[in-house]
Design a protein that fits this description.
Elements lengths: L4 E4 L6 H9 L8 H11 L5 E4 L5 E5 L5 E7 L4 E7 L5 E6 L11 E4 L8 E6 L8 H4 L9 E3 L5 H6 L7 E4 L4 E10 L9 E11 L2 H19 L7 E7 L7 H10 L3 E9 L17 E4 L9 H14 L3 E4 L8 H4 L8 E8 L7 E4 H17 L2 H6 L4
Parallel strand pairs: 1-12, 4-13, 4-14, 14-17, 15-16
Antiparallel strand pairs: 2-3, 3-13, 5-6, 5-10, 7-8, 7-10, 8-9, 11-12, 12-18, 15-17
Amino acid sequence: MQAEVRIMAGKELDIALLEKLCNAFGPSGHEHEAQKIVRDHGQKYADETLYDRMGSVVFRKGDQGPKIMLAGHVDEIGFVITNIEKNGCLRFHQLGGWWDQTLLAQEVLISPSSGSEKVVGVIGAPPPHVLSPEDRNKVVTKEKMFFDIGCSSKREVEALGISVGDPAVPLASFRTMQRKRKEKKDEEMKDSEEVVRDVTIAVAKAFDDRIGVFIALEVLRRLSEEKTDHPNTIYTVSTTQEEVGLRGARTAAQMILPDIGFALDVDISGDVPGVDGLVQKMGRGVSISAGDGSMIPNPRFRRFVLDIAEEMGIRHQPAFLKAGSTDAGAIHLTGMGVPSLFIGIPTRHIHSHHAMLDMTDVESAVNLLVEVVKRLDEDTARSFTEL
């Protein structure tokens, strides 16, 4: 009988901060509530707090050597109200990409422009009882949906302070689940010792991409509390409007002019039924991407990061996305170009009310980035682009 080895993970991470970030209101273009949390937490560990005019928050740590940009986008996918109907129902448009099948009967939280309290709504559509047999078998599209906030007239809606242009987000709360996961210590070896990991699984509405912001803040905290000696200047960045065009990353990178760029984001997990061709899986380690729809990483830079992960025994896995983009797509085109890399957390059910990830992967990402910062220097950064 094989021995069982228990591995505890995730206990040093600031889970309370992650919960606060994920529960905060902050769709694209309306990130200020979430950014206040970021600002108040991060400035304790930074030498300087900076802002661009798109609402991104930047923490500088250090003042010499290569400038390393660690970017996570704080905006979550959401909605904007486009019309208030006479019967009190609200029509909406998406902020970021929503899949129609995930929306019906889910709750949303609306932030009124002139009201003091947020308003809860339910996403509705014509019930199947009144549809033709043909229409019942069709997917209900967003254009046929509405927010129902329990009002019966436009006047009632306006009395709550709601108007066209007001934003909304999914109504869902952060939670964790404890699981014991048995796996082989070395999956490539048939007779490898079995390992039992005590795993923390987290579920939340806004891991895309509060998890990236959280990782960046945890790296900043570690570097500060451990007084890590390294020859770099770290820019920890909480960017805005990524879901609608990588906008905050573009302006923040123009302000910083980094020498090295990291986009920290969720990655699609390839371990659910019907998903074929994705090697990255939840719980198998941090994703070190080989590319996506917006950029091709500098291969020498990526190899440098992979070598560190392998040397340090940090759980990691390769990844590639045929479509989709991250803040690295904007960062790598800054100035004369910036060697950049997408570091991801394999996440199930992204762009929904309830995404799911393994906190062990998050811990791996933090450990990897801390080690990268320790080993990067001016000569190494230059070597990525020299012929």
